Amino acid sequence: MNGPLTIPPERLMESVDAVCLVFAEENGNALKAMPSSMLGQPDQPEALLDFTRFEIEEAERFLIRCGLIRKIPDDRPSAH
Length: 80
What we know:
By secondary structure, the protein is mostly helical. It has three helices and no strands.
């Protein structure tokens, strides 16, 4: 059962794949910000185009809980 702030498991895995692709495309270079903070920016990775901010943030939280990535502090100015 999906609540108001959940996404289907299949969609979560698709967004996890997109976030992993962003990390992989860096070829070992350190990301300066989490992929979700790149949304709407000129350097937004193409892999994230088909996802909402919520979906990408959920994917990041999932990967952090799994111990596969660590949160990157965001130094960027807010887009708001």
